[in-house]
Each structure stands twice: as C-alpha cells, then as structure tokens.
Amino acid sequence: MKAKTQIPQELIENKIYFIRGKKVMLDSDLAILYRVETKTFNRAVKRNLERFPEEFMFQLSKEEYASLRYQFGTLKRGQHSKYSSYVFTEYGVAMLSSVLSSKRSIQVNIQIIKTFVRLREIVISNHKLRLKIESMEKKYDKKFVAVFDAIRRLLDAHRKEPAKIIGFRDRKKK
Fold first, then answer.
1. Which of 5, 128, 129, 164 would be a feasible disulfide site paired with 107, CB 3.0-4.6 Å?
2. Is residue 170 included in any domain, yes or no?
C-alpha cells in the first residue's frame, strides 16, 4: 500500500486568503504544494484557460499584489515573478485536478477541497450559533445580558480589532 501525500491542514488554511470577497489561493502557494515550479504550473493553466472563468481564477491587480506583500509578508521582492499572481477559488482548485494529473496533485487537491469545505462549515456553524444566541437573548431578562455579551465577544474573537495606540500622547495636540 502506497503512502498518501499528507499536508498539515493548518498549512493549507494559512495559504487561503480573502480577496475580492472570495477565499483564494495563490498560484505560487499551489505550485509549492504540488511540487512544481510556478512557471510550469501557470503554463499548464494557460493551456487550459477555457476551464478557468473569472469565478474560478483571476489575476491580482498591482494594488492587491502589493497589499499581500505588505500585509502578510508572503510576497518578497525578488523572490517571485515580475507578473501579478493568479489566484484560484475553491472551484478553480477543483478544476486544477483536470489540468494537473499527477498522483501528488490529485491528493493535494483532495486535501485543499476538504479544507475549503471545513472552513465553510465553521462559518455556517458560527452563524447558526449566533442566531440561536440572539433568539435566546430575546427570551431572557436583562440579568443575562453580561453572559450574552461575553459569548458574543468569544464569537467575534477571530475578527481583528484595530490596534490600540500604546504610549504617551502630547496633550497639546488635541
């Protein structure tokens, strides 16, 4: 029995970004997971462009590319292509299985799709839990407000809050 390609779930989750309102993966990250050069990966995709409409794959604008490099530190100058990256949605990743047919790419695709599905399930269950708490909040009196506020803060913990300014302020500059 052959050993399956196993990539840690967290590694895949950390390679999924939220761009233009969609969860996507960069071509360079996918190429690394498939163990091929990004140039080779993109060449295979370009030979099959009819399989990748915009809801499956799109190219980042210069601003999006710069923002990714700045925000996440994933794109370092000189280490990546001079062309803007392509990004693939969950549908695009699924379509990659018809373009890349090595045993590794099939196993990696399965893991990536499972990760996208898992993330979607987490979002849905979080939403259902929020709705259930809101309906309970309406039933109970004001004594439980602190409890519901604490639960709501826990549900929102994954959202980034703006950084608080630490240090001294010049009182003259109000």
1. 5
2. no
Say yes or no: 58 and 82 in one domain.
Answer: yes
Are 54 and 131 in the same domain?
no
Domain count along the chain: 2
Q: pLDDT digit string (tens) for 98-126? A: 788 777 777 888 888 888 888 877 777 77
- Same domain (yes/no): 136, 101: no
Nearest to 114 by CA among 9, 14, 15: 9
The parent domain of residue 69 ranges over 9-122
DSSP string of 25-93, one letter each residue: EEHHHHHHHHTS-HHHHHHHHHTTGGG--TTTEEEPPHHHHHHHHHHHS-S-TTTS-SSPPEEE-HHHH
CA nearest 96: which of 45, 53, 139?
45
| Residue of 50 and 152 predicted with greater confidence | 50
What is the C-alpha to C-alpha distance for residues 60 and 79, in angstroms, rounded to an integer? 17
Is 95 in the same domain as 59? yes
Cβ–Cβ < 8 Å for 112, 12? yes
**Smallest Cα–Cα separation from 109: which of 87, 126, 90?**
90
Give the predicted TM-score (pTM) of the model.
0.61
